[in-house]
Amino acid sequence: MYIEHIAMYVNDLEKVKKFFVKYFNAECSKLYCNFKTNFMSYFLSFDNGARLELMTRPDMENSQKPLNRTGFIHIAFSLGSREAVDTLTEKLRHDGYNVISDPRTTGDGYYESCLLDIENNQIELTI
Questions:
Q1: In this structure, is residue 110 part of a structural domain?
Q2: Which residues of the chain have pLDDT under 50?
Q3: Same domain for 51 and 80?
């Protein structure tokens, strides 16, 4: 058994798609549109086969996203090395993204950093 994909509603489908394509080398499907419900989505595929579905529709609720809450909290990307974590963290910081924790080794042994994407979803970068 494996997780086939994770789905995330977003406000700006095109901007979020471009974020994942630019920084995480995602490959993007063609846009799917259901004109009856105004639902639109892209499937993003990553090197190891994991997929992320980005979805939008006009009737979504846009609640605050505190970091300490129940439910799904972050997406973690394994970059393969400390250097890759450091480099991408600095590139995202330079490009104006909010790095909420600098690269470090956590108490449970992960080397990681965390940032917020353009819609304040938490992204973890790890080895």
A1: yes
A2: none
A3: no
The strand pair at 32-34 and 39-45 is best described as: antiparallel
| Residue indicated by tokens 């963290």 | 89
- Closest to 40 in 3D by CA, of 49, 28, 48: 28
Provide the pLDDT for residue 14.
Answer: 98
Q: Which residues span the domain enclosing 17?
A: 6-56
- The CATH number linked to 120 is 3.10.180.10
126 contact partners, CB below 8 Å, separation of at least 6: 76, 77, 78, 79, 85, 110, 111, 112
Token pair of 64 as six digits = 């605050």
Average pLDDT, rounded, for the chain = 95
Instruction: Tell me if 63 sits within 8 A of 111, measured CB to CB.
Output: no
First to last CA, the chain: 24
